[in-house]
Protein: AbrB/MazE/SpoVT family DNA-binding domain-containing protein
Organism: Halosimplex rubrum
Amino acid sequence: MAKVDSKGRIVLPKELRDRLGIEAGTEVEVRADDGRAVIEPEREPDEIVDRLEALVEDAATDRSATEGSDIEDPYARDHAETIRRGVDRETGNDE
């Protein structure tokens, strides 16, 4: 059983790290879910963008309304552009 030290650190058992593909330096997301602590390895930027695009597509009642249109909210537009730039840097598409 893992213990929390005085600084809030937890050492994940090696078997669990191996199973989840967590190695030294891997960034993880830690969140609360129904009274439990959930630890997940950081996902790849392409996977995040694909998931966001799928959510947008599912939320759009009329797909044609989202095609070719600009995002009107300046904060949302800036966020989307930041994500795209990050993905381009990670995938080498930042020409």
About this structure: The helical segments are 14-20, 45-59, 63-66, 74-91. Confidence is low (pLDDT under 50) at residues 61-69. The chain is about 45% helix and 15% strand.
